[in-house]
Amino acid sequence: MFKYDYPHPAVTTDCVIFGYDTREGLSVLLIERGIEPFRGCWAFPGGFMRIDEDADTGALRELKEETGFEPLYIEQFGAFTDVDRDPRERVITIAYLALVKKGPVAGGDDASKARWFPLNAVPALAFDHDRILRVAISRLREQIHFRPIGFDLLPPVFTMPQLQSLYESILGTHFDRRNFAAKMLHLGLLEADKERSENTPRRVPTTYRFNKDRYEEMKSGGFRIEF
Amino acid sequence: MFKYDYPHPAVTTDCVIFGYDTREGLSVLLIERGIEPFRGCWAFPGGFMRIDEDADTGALRELKEETGFEPLYIEQFGAFTDVDRDPRERVITIAYLALVKKGPVAGGDDASKARWFPLNAVPALAFDHDRILRVAISRLREQIHFRPIGFDLLPPVFTMPQLQSLYESILGTHFDRRNFAAKMLHLGLLEADKERSENTPRRVPTTYRFNKDRYEEMKSGGFRIEF
DNA sequence: TTCATATTGTGTGAATTTTACGCAAAGATA
DNA sequence: TATCTTTGCGTAAAATTCACACAATATGAA
User: Fold this and answer.
1) How many CB atoms lie within 10 A of CB B220?
2) Which domain, by its residues, includes A209?
3) Among all strands, which nt has the closest C1' to A181 (CA)?
């Protein structure tokens, strides 16, 4: 039993985990809650922050425990603190945005009910997670202009059409194929690859790799990807 | 006495309050701590979040109580959760960025020791507030591209040189006078004012007002101020 | 093998925006 | 009235964005 002179809220972390594939576009990973409150509802993986770990560590721990994924990018994007957002007691949550390489859920102990949902087919969510998701998406859209985080969602070797549909999926817009390729190549972050991509219906597109060293160089002088 | 099965951290809010005037440029409002820990150190106004209010409400309350200012803009920009950031007990803080019309500190009860510091003359700060300040400044620089929040820092009627030095002060850069004016006017957010500005050494610059209605119109179609 | 089809790679000119900078007008001071 | 400083306006060159055409490559059917 832990005692305080003043009431303290409980603190949780929640992870909005995005993944991507060409078939379903941008998707988010949800877990079906096995316990009350909101039993049977879908929610973000997350849990109580331990008293001896910071929120970043806690979010990462919960993410791995509940989904088995190793995030390629993770970033705190806000605290959600509405007084009655949790029916049990006063709980505030610190929300994280994570990108992972999409795949079948490897499954830790709790992961039996984890599933990917394409962004346009997300069910009603527990707590205030609907609002958290909206904020996460708008944050992802902002971030993609400043960091090449999109590349974390693709395999290490990818084609220009793949890269374009990823960007279109995240930003919800359509780009001219030729202008998109020109801009991307002009950034100097891509290098053409020898290998050929597999499983393409028509002409085989050239494959590229993301040059992370080049990106690190560019960051020092400030940096922005325009679209 | 409040008892929990699991340990709960304390939760505070802290406000990084920015003000501006031509003489000192961008400044931040700090309070000298009267109690331990960090007694005598300068820190952001803030305090414990109440169990029956959300963080936004708490931040606003503390801001008003401790400084007497009414923020023209306020925005949460992050939670800081390092395990040992407070020597007393586990305390996490939710940090807010606020803009106020700079003036003498009106002073609530605690405000006796509040003072404005120009950004290039900020003393060492209590807790992890140095880091919080750095994050706040970079957030302010980002935000100024998407919202005309700079106008909240100026008097309702202002001149183009005033507006320019505000932007230069926030972004830490220098713009060509003529190009800056052209871009600003081109946005359509300014309307020329009849009145003349006072106290100018040479030629009297024309004065402008910020057209908030026009801004609200523009927001719907997405919006970005480029520099 | 050949042809029609689908998809990718590259280029180019027009329109727009950014950038650098010249010059005259307006007020203050001598 | 002359001089100095600051503001307002304009313009040409450079860079970027945007719309679009055409050739090249692979597949599958004839």
Assistant:
1) 7
2) 158-221
3) C9
